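Pair request: fold both.
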Amino acid sequence: MRRIPGKQWGLWVAGAALLAVIGTGVVWAQDGGGLFGNFDWGSLGFGDLFKSLESGTGTESTQTQAAPEAPLTPEEKKAVDKGLTRDYRVKAENSTLVLWFDPKTSNLAVEDKRNGNMWRSAPDLTGKNLEISGLWQDHLQSPFVFNYTQDFERSKPSDTKRAMPEMTMTDTTGPDGKVDGVKVHYKFTDPGNGQGIELTVIYRIQGDELVVTVPYQDIKDGLPPKGQPKESGNYLESIEMLPFLGAASNGDDGYAFYPDGSGAITYFNRPHQPEFTTNYSEFVYGPDDFPWRIQTAQTAMLPVFGMVQGKGAFLGIIREGEASAKINFSPSGYNNVPLYRNGAELVYRREYQVFLRRGTPVQKIAENRIPGDREIRYIFLDKKDASYSGMAMRYRRYLMEEGGVKPIQLTTFPLNLRLFMGIQRPMLIFQQFVPMTTFKEAEQIVEDLRQRGVAGIDLTLVGWNRGGWYANWPRRFPIPSQLGGASGLKALAAKMKELGVPLYLEDNYVEAWRTAGGFSARLDVVRAANKLPVYDPRNNDHLLLSPKVALRMAQRDIPKLAELGVSGEELLRVGELMFPDYNSRSLLERDGTADTWMQIAQLSREKLGRAAAHGANAYLFGYVDALRDVPMRDSGYVFSDESVPFLQMVLHGLIPYSGETANLRYDARRQFLREIEYGAIPSFELTWQSSTLLAETEYNRLFTSEYRLWADRVTKEYKEVAQVLGPVMNEAMIQHQQLADQVYKVTYEDGTSIIVNYRETPYDEGGVHVDALGYTVLRGGVNG
């Protein structure tokens, strides 16, 4: 064996060491850390060598080079110049909008010509350096995300990217014969992602709107092969449509609006905690549950949501299928996705609970789909209208033009005067009827207030019915003799008609008690998806009337009230509660329940002249003359930045409304200021007798109500509010804005502005002074 001379051996060792250092340097330098991460190899003359090795462009590199992309065609360049990928094409265009569509993914983008905004279903995250998991990356690149089930117990999420559907596309045409959109039929074929499910989505532009429709007739579940168990199939549960349209990241200019109570907004550029464990996800018109669940969130009373970005905005309106839809707003950080997103989820199978033998709840998914087409309209707003105020005005316009809602014109600014009449107090053996206000005393209260200068009164009697308030529905007659009986109520109604005071009777067609009788606790009550009667877990005598049964009772009893001469019924629960009925004798989905509530309100109008309701669910608009207990705030979620009067902006000058009961306020001054800011009618609930008589009854919430103690306060508040809001009682509230911390300005159609200051220090800006915890009225630019 030939020996290597010592000098040569040393050269070989040095060369090997150098190569090892070079290799280590390349790897560690690529990683950006380690011993050599910040070392300047160029200072030793190795810079070019490392660049060559790192990039694979050295003479010894065997790395395969990616084939260069083909040059852009004119159509592709047009898309790229707009910030889209080369696959997008113009599918439809009108004077306001351009619909761009990617036939490979079925993603879309809507270009607003007025301001240049490009609203994408798949957000552009170029340069944003966001960390998003693989599952959510797929969701981001999909026009919709869907949930399905196999065992009717668990939901499985999927999307169009992960599930790789077969897509068949057809152009749609408008009335003028021009292409206005595209119809896409999706057939999912991936065994692990909803195989066999089929559905169609139609995307089209009309004026300043994108209209998205999901025809029910085209939906198919992935049914199991013949002879196989149903659990081997795939069943559509819900679709989140365009969940990332207008998605924004931290620091962007704009905000999201969602219909939480009166309305709420979350800004994109305000500091929020890095991760949220919850989002806003509520069924439109109330939870898909029953009324005895502890409700921590305000009801979403309007089927709307929106996003504001820069000079543009969109308002989403669920036009069809809203009774079986959710509004989902997710703040940045929810599910570790650093994006604000807002949209609608269309529900086809509802979830419900069943209880095992030992009372353990188990979540189930209904086997039958909720029928009906679904449609969402996205209305794009420009510049001065790109705000929650602009959204409210556009939804108001939609209600009037397409919903047929006609404004209720007031001639005198009213006070909502509620008089509590009677209730039963439990005794050792029997129950004792406690008359708090007789019909004759009610007349005296009204006449006294009129003499004091309360010009307008809407009178509501609470607890006027058989047995008084609570546990006596659905029976109304006979009217308690302790209050004056039917003759006393008839005399009061005649006197109120003479004085021009509308007289409403608070009524309840939703709840029923076994102990009251007058119905079958087996046949006439709401049943859940498990086919069992729905009852209050705290009192199994407390049930829900099947809506169809309730309608029959209204048809029987409202004509009797007409004979007494009352002006209308004030309906409890129907404006804030929605549920399905699985009773085989009176089967209804949620929209069927809403339709029944509307029929009862319409019957009250036809037979008595008027109807009012508690709550403000939008299906009642156009069927009532007044709304009570309208929410005056949002739910206070940690990610909500402001509560806004979106609901009030929609209603003001359209339907009169009242909010919180004034004699039950917990912060008298600030809640009074909220009444001024939100344009609400004052509401008081009073009694002739002392409220101490209610202490041992089911109505102990009315802890202060004696008229003689409240008469001066009622008169003072009415006159003050009437002076401020009376001149604008029939005007639209066209703008609401925050001027400073805890200082807000509301503007009406006639130019009147009201600035409300909730701070404990005065507000002085632009020549306008507002006292601490006060307000200033500007009529035509002059202090009023």
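--- second member of the pair ---
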Amino acid sequence: MRTISRRDFLRLGAASTAVLAVESQFRPLARAAELLEGGRSVNRTSGLPRSFLPSTCTQCPAGCGIIGYVEESRLVKIGGNTKHISNAGTLCARGQAGINALYDPDRLLKPLKRTGARGQDSWVEIEWEEALAEVAQRMAAARSNPQSLLFLTEDVERDPLGRRFTHAYGSPNAIGSAGIHDANKKVATSLTWGAAGDIPDVARCKYVLVFGANPLENNPNFVGMARRFVDGIQQNQSKVVVFDVRLSHTTTFSHELHYVAPGKMALVALAMANVIMQDGLYDRDFIERWTNVSPEQLAQHLAQYSPERAEAEAGVSALDIRRLAAEFASTKPATTITDSVLSGFSNGVQNERAVMLLSIITGNIDNRGGLCMPRQYGLDEPAPAPPQPGVSVFTNPENVAFPSQQAVAQVLRQAKDRQAEVRVLMTHSVNPLYSSPDEGLNEDVLRDENVIPFHVAITPYLNETAAFADIIMPETTYMEDWEIEVRPSLEQVPFVALRQPVVPPLESARSFFEIARDLASRIGGGMEQFFAFNSVSDYLKARISSVGGLANAGGLDYLKQHGIWFDPKSRPNYGSYEAGGFSTPSGRIEVFSPRLAERGFAPLPSYETVQAFRELGERELVLTIYETALHTDGKTGNCMWLNEIQHDNPALINPETAARLGIEDGDKIKLIRSSKSGEAKERSIETEAFLTEGVHPDVIAMANGVGHTGFGRIAQGEKFKKDEVRHRELRDANFQLVWWGDHGGTGVNAKRIVPIEMDPIGGGQAWGDMVVSVAKD
């Protein structure tokens, strides 16, 4: 087993510092004021103050408040906005590396038109007039069947202009790639308590059960959640117990870590729930008043999940299960944290409901320090709003009972199978060829002009997906663009934030607002009426018009100055369900789900065995692809600072397992997709073995975010000089210091070999079902 080198030490230290050097405090804003002193910055040479503007980071889903510092129209630093209710001035490495995204040396600044076959990297620069005219002509011709437009984006809920454009065209097919990660959790929570998602109130709790999550490295509310997680430990002396298949930064802050056999966490949770019910530790009043089951019904159902069964199948001691169940039930308040490591299975919805049950039966629901419902402002669609076009096979697939955000890979497979006609594919700042499972199938679809006759990519970068486009329109980055941002509040107080240009757009890059408005005008046929805004400010003002109190504070002008607004008189509205019940058909938490029963699924939270795990072969292991604090899937690979810290992803293997397989530390190995994982077609990747006791013996784990085959020279670890950068604004002498391509490589994208497989209830990708055969290369 290897020792920790200086480079490994620095990498671990940088990753930890990015998330752990935080302090948390809710700072209500009583009135408008200048930015706090901590938000100011000066030139280190002259001592002169830098100009600055607040905005919102989009380097990950958290949407932290940021301050961009500018000297002579060039962004020189990104810091945290001390006024933002979520991150309160702290910022992770990804947020600070937004400078790299803005000044990526291979960034696109003029439209490109394909001149060779798709994927051959043969392009010619064209003017905007030609690009817009050709795209508008192709889209106008295809509009005889409006549902033939397929619009793929990162997250439909956070791309309101993209959704508006698609609906104005007459197509319902605005599809977000975020569904491949959190669809199952959103469906599970929606079915159970009528709201998509949850907010664990970790800063105020006394006991936290973490099932597969890693809030100190990755979370939809990353920095804000990490701050509050640490606060709960330091200020409340909360106990943290982690169930996982590997060691993470979160486990280093926990009081206990229990390795769980892959796919078995729900069994452990249900065994704990069984103990709570059988030993009378449950909250009878809450169950009887606010759920649709009785304690007796639950106790009878849960009796099948004994701690002894969980020990035999999941590997967690029955004594520990009984002890932890009693501790959790007797400590108030308490909460749970989950993410896609729990829900990213073919039984993901049931897994999520199983863990959620622990908070329900102990009455830790929407209370201070408990598991809270998400709270955020709903924004108006500016009038006139395009009509909702209905549904299609892409938005309402037959093989998913409760589709929320359809997985992009599933949509591309449907297109390949000709389930519906696609005449125009528009991809907007999304990279499914990297982010989605089964790269081979996705590439085949994007390459085939019979399946996708026309593909326009709207993106700042020539990433893996844009390489298969016919026209590429260079979009502004988030540091040059506008949008209203709303997200679930970690403080239970909803807020409105602003993303605004910190620097002017480079060269001829255009915002998506400009592109969509221009295309709508050219396509015509009524589309133009939905984009008849004189300016982007008019559009933004219409978006926030329904938010009471914001107009009195100054509306858009207030947001431009402060970056965020929330009602200074608001306080966390715990227990909001007591006024009107839950947003379910019964008005209660539906532990027994009639909607699941109607479709033939288990109506009570249940454990379902993953079929692929029933009998693992001698050389077979379960592949776990995990997220880190340094990369956001296919989004940040072109950020130089992040790649200096994390640029490869050796496969983590338990030493006992490695010895059985005849593998030593540093060996070249091949991971071959097992036929148990849904498809017989062999796909494989090659990587390096990293022996560590920090992973379950049945698991082989690889980090996500590296292994790009496109996305420019930084993402691929290529060294070059600044005079080799075409655009003057993007030149930086540090490019010749790119070293990682020659020292360990740039990793491999493990998602390439994962087949498309979904939870039949929620439609989320079953990442966790992946079985591989491991061979010494």
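Observation on the second member. The domain at 112-180+379-537 is CATH 3.40.50.740 (Rossmann fold).
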